[in-house]
Amino acid sequence: MKRTIKYEADRVKGFGREVMSVPGCEELENCIQCGTCSGVCPLSIYMDHSPRQIMALTRSDFKNEVLTSHTIWLCASCYACSVECPREIRITDIMYELKQRAIHEGIYPRRFPIPVLAKEFSKMAHDLGRVTENFLVVKLFLKTNWMAAIGMWRLGLNLIRTGRFSLKRESIQRRGELAKMLESVENEKETA
Amino acid sequence: MKYAYFPGCSLKGMGRAYEESLLPVMKKLGVEFNELEDWNCCGATAYMAVDEVKACVLASRNLAIAERAGNKEMVAPCSACYLVLNKAKHYFNESPIMAGKVKRALKTADMEYSGDVDIRHPLDILTNDIGIDEIKKHVTHPLKGLKVATYYGCQIVRPYSTFDDQNNPQTMDRLIEALGAEVVHYPLKTKCCGGSLTGTLPEAGLRLCYILLNEAIKQGADVIATVCPLCQFNLDAYHDKIKAQWGPARIPVVYFSQLMGLAYGMSEKKVGLQRNIVKADLRPKAAAAA
Fold it and tell me: Considering only the top CATH level, what class is B139-289?
């Protein structure tokens, strides 16, 4: 049966506090639930929860509902909400914080292309120092829905025809230098 | 005038026409862009979603390289690069915790960043450092009769823009008018194109593109001028799918720098117009009306 109400047991006490303690996310405390964020968001009509609801659910510790929502992934980082919020809440940055937590805990929606793209993009930037767009797109399709790639043949041809298709994967020269830096971030996390 | 130049991945990839047009235009104006040596990906919106600290380190390596070479200012033409580099700089200067993490990471490769280098946008440099009068002086082939919708997109005006208004930016409008073209009223000039959602969730992403294209046509524009490689790609590449779902909305989308090149007498090939999927025949239109 479809649940119509939430239960006290659904709350993970302290989740809201934890998010609000992250630098840049503190102002969530002052949200007045006016809905300006949902109103200016160009993608809110496609979301399972509106941005305003995500703010309320986060503050009220509904951790699982927030981190499994598609909303946080639909945010395209256009910053309209952050700029318009009358309480100066950095909503886009809170969405980023929630995305990171969902990835870290491995509870983002599986095979949903948006988090998969984020992961593949950062992997490519991490390993090679540069991103070659068409290689990234191919990887994305292989990891999500390779059948959909077939519908893209015409776009691929268009890109080849106009000389916008890269045949070679780009990379920086001093990959070792970058690897060292990123590794040190990882090590610092472990010792913390 | 001299600036460090951060091209970013797109300007070497699908958005190469942006670089191909921007560099000769700047050269014509006597401005020197020196490409940052061994620059790396800014991380874009994707890396921030996975690991914010690493994203800041990634961006800061570029700022450290710029600083080491003695640069005070670095130009980032791609909107995502412009935003992310600025964001990393803000975090570095606002949060001592983040600054400490970034410094320690850079140190492992004997690099340093002090939070100094300014990240600038070409529109900022063109309108504030060079000036509209100087831009006008070099126009040999005014784009008379060409109606342009100026599309700024989201990430150069929000949230860190220092050079233009967040809701009704004007720098590109003034620039396009200086080229002799006409700027049409375009109320969607800072609305989102959907970013990477056009690929990951076409239902949602492409609808935003359709709205943007359709509005420009309704306002009587011949062409949309943009500042962002992802906006250009989204609005140029998906017309088949957009047409199938919402109806035709075909209008060419070019970089502002390509229009500058044309007005400066450069050939269509020189400014990379052959890379457009929706062909942009701009000169005949401009010439016919002249």
Answer: alpha beta
Pairing of strands B2-5, B253-255: unpaired
User: Domain boundaries in chain A?
Assistant: 8-104, 113-191
Name which of A90, A172, A181 is nearest B106 (Cβ-Cβ).
A181
Fold of A8-104: Fumarate Reductase Iron-sulfur Protein; Chain B, domain 2 (1.10.1060)
pLDDT tens string B155-177: 999 998 789 999 899 999 999 99
**DSSP, res B138:** T
| Tokens representing residue B17 in the block | 């026409």
> What's the pLDDT tens digit per position in B204-228?
999 999 999 999 999 999 999 999 9
Is the CATH code 1.20.1050.140 the one for domain B36-120?
yes
CB distance A155–B109 less than 8 Å?
A: no
DSSP E strands in chain B: the ranges are 2-5, 32-35, 73-75, 118-120, 147-151, 182-183, 223-226, 253-255
Contact criterion met (CB < 8 Å) for B49 and A99: yes
